[in-house]
Design a protein that fits this description.
Blueprint (H helix, E strand, L loop, with lengths): L12 H9 L5 H14 L6 E4 L1 H16 L11 E5 L26 H8 L3 E6 L35 H8 L6 E4 L6 H7 L2 E4 L20 E5 L2 H11 L7 H5 L2 H5 L12 E4 L10 H16 L5 E3 L7 H24 L8 H10 L4 H21 L5 E5 L16 H12 L3 E9 L5 E8 L4 H15 L14
Helix pairs in contact: 2-3, 5-6, 11-12, 11-13, 11-14
Organism: Achromobacter arsenitoxydans SY8
Pfam families: Amidase
Protein name: Amidase
């Protein structure tokens, strides 16, 4: 491979696709490049299963098709990683749990089908928090992915799509597909210094994925930039009879992803700090103020947005946890109540708590959700995206009881409860050199305009690319 290709692993997906399309690079060589890096970095623990033989066969097929003049899509031949909760026939879908050790999928998820149908190459399955129940990314039973920004201290990789965030940040995949029920795409993106996009419900079919919450589950990409996130979502989006949410989404919302537009002046507002659902640490505030200063210097100062009195972001975060726990118990309660099952005690307690929530409380939360979604959409008229912090602090050392990163959930879960489109964007570093992030929100279905704003802001918020020092990881 030519010397200039040593940085292939940090090129974005569209660059790689262009090189393949122009025959400057083969999918087979690119796939082997990523597989070699994955093999050299087992300590990062980004993957739960590497499907090397399959990936090389897919890459060879992509090259043969291209040689015959056939391109399956704009990311033809580009490698991708998928979360361990996404079924792919013949591979393990453990959901991060030892209770499903050796559970080989007999079906393939709709999203995985679409990846393959686009000519993309699946490198393997990425690690995750057990049953997607946690935002720090910790998983002591199967192994925790390592945040690549600190080789000396085991810090939170972000969860639950922990391995997906680590894989993209460390150049072990150009992009990855995760899931976001309470922030599980945005948390690993935020803590690893990459982009994480949670589409509105209904964009990407969840059929064939291990569930956590039917109401809240969403699939979304983790990528190097907004354009890659937008493109991958566009390729995976569309109606699926096996996921009713995709049938309820207006087709115009999906179609709009195809037509990026300049972000209009005044299209972004910033959530008033007194409405934040949790305070930021001093280090978190420093990153936030630095981001605000960069926006000011670029002439992008957002107006302050005050939510209506009924719309408490702190209460919506709590309601999201209530709905998630109630529905998760219906799937995994029997496991949690069985002491013989090898669950992490922290996740066991979280699942079991869902069994103590009354049906009346659950139904009341769902009613509030409908009212909140309507109120948010009404209050956001004339605003394409709402800017707010994505994390109260950068990744901290992991703690046994997994309480140190509770602020992540308070900041990220309101978007899930609102059914909102949301995206986490890199926004600087704390004094320890750990990444910080902000997020943009838009009412359900407003994804395209929000992504237009995100594309405009990303270069302002992080104008100079900064990558982790991977030498300690053998990379």
């Amino acid at each position: 491979m030519p010397a200039q290709d040593t940085a292939l692993h940090f090129q974005d997906a569209r660059q790689l696709a262009r090189a393949i399309r122009e025959r400057k690079l083969s999918s087979l060589a690119l796939t082997q490049h990523f597989l070699d890096r994955i093999e050299r970095a087992p300590a990062l623990a980004a993957y739960s299963e590497v499907t090397a033989e399959r990936a090389l066969a897919q890459a060879d097929a992509a090259d043969r098709l291209l040689a015959a003049g056939i391109s399956m899509g704009p990311l033809h031949g580009v490698p991708v990683a998928v979360k361990d909760s996404i079924h792919w026939e013949g591979t393990t879908a453990s959901g991060g749990s030892q209770t499903r050790l050796g559970a080989v999928s007999t079906v393939t998820a709709a999203a995985a089908h679409r990846l393959v149908a686009q000519g993309m190459v699946i490198l393997g399955k990425t690690r995750m928090t057990e049953f997607a129940f946690g935002l720090s990314g910790q998983n002591p039973t199967q192994g925790t992915a390592r945040n690549p920004w600190d080789a000396s201290v085991a810090r939170a990789p972000g969860g639950s799509s922990s391995g997906a965030g680590v894989a993209v940040a460390a150049g072990l995949a150009p992009l990855a597909l995760g899931g976001d029920t309470g922030g599980s795409v945005r948390a690993p993106a935020a803590l690893n210094g990459v982009v994480g996009y949670k589409p509105s419900s209904g964009f990407i079919s969840r059929a064939g994925c291990l569930p956590l919450s039917d109401t809240l589950d969403v699939l979304g990409p983790i990528t190097r930039n907004v354009a890659d996130a937008r493109l991958l979502t566009q390729l995976l989006a569309g109606p699926d009879i096996d996921d009713a949410a995709t049938l309820a989404l207006p087709a115009v919302c999906v179609a709009a992803l195809r037509y990026p537009s300049p972000c209009n002046a005044g299209a972004v507002a910033v959530l008033a700090p007194q409405a934040w659902p949790t305070p930021l640490t001093d280090a978190g505030l420093q990153v936030w103020h630095q981001a605000q200063a960069r926006l000011d210097r670029a002439g992008c100062t957002p107006t302050t947005w005050h939510p209506p009195a009924s719309l408490s972001f702190a209460r919506m975060a709590e309601d999201n946890s209530l709905v998630l726990a109630y529905e998760a118990y219906r799937y995994y309660g029997a496991l949690a109540e069985d002491p013989a099952q090898p669950l992490w005690d922290v996740v066991r307690a979280r699942i079991a708590a869902g069994g103590r929530i009354s049906q009346a409380s659950y139904e009341a939360a769902l009613e509030r959700r409908q009212a909140d979604m309507a109120a948010f959409a009404q209050a956001m008229q004339g605003v394409d995206a709402l800017l707010m912090p994505a994390c109260d602090q950068a990744a901290q050392p992991l703690d046994a009881q997994d309480t140190r990163h509770a602020g992540l959930g308070k900041l990220l879960r309101p978007a899930n409860f609102l059914g909102a489109a949301a995206i986490a964007l890199p926004a600087g570093f704390d004094a320890d050199g750990m990444p910080g992030a902000v997020q943009l929100l838009a009412p359900a279905g407003g994804d395209a305009a929000m992504l237009d704003c995100a594309a405009a802001l990303e270069q302002v918020l992080a104008p100079a690319a900064r990558l982790p020092d991977l030498s300690a990881w053998g990379l």
